[in-house]
Amino acid sequence: MNLVNFGSGTRPLPGWINVDLDASNRPDVVADLARPLPFADGCADAIFTEDFVNQLVPDALHAFLSECRRILKPDGVLRVLAPDLRRFARMYLEEPDRLVRIWTDHVGVPLPNGTAGDVFNLGMQLAGCWEYDLATFVPIAARAGLDTVVVDYAASRHPALRGIDMRKPAEALSMYLECTPHRLAPPRARRPV
Known about the structure:
By secondary structure, this protein is an alpha/beta fold.
């Protein structure tokens, strides 16, 4: 079984092909994920990426997801965890004290004033170059040939993808998504002649 972890950073997954741009993290494969992926077509049973897609603007995300689609087997699964812009903005507006608590307990970057405004601004600066919500991610994935569903933390229909999420719902503002290759419509039955 071929399992690929894109953007592995300092958290490689045992038994997976860990891929990262930073060679000092000692990944199995050093690769720039904004370029064509160094894998054969249809070779991956499962792909995992956490906190990487927000490093990509929409056109680059489309290219990355297209490459993931290319290397996935027809029944393969891509699991994507990323900060959820909608959840982040909602918590800023509706639960600012909780937002500050999550940041203080799980991110650890000092807040200049200890406010939710600090969290929002630092979060946008540090999280990457583009923040996605479900409404933005899904059509990009669809154009790349992938169907997207929202899934629960640590849960997956694919056994290898269960229990590997780093960020728990109470500690982060992540969205948990799984993408599968578009299925071709079943052929229509022909009428007898």
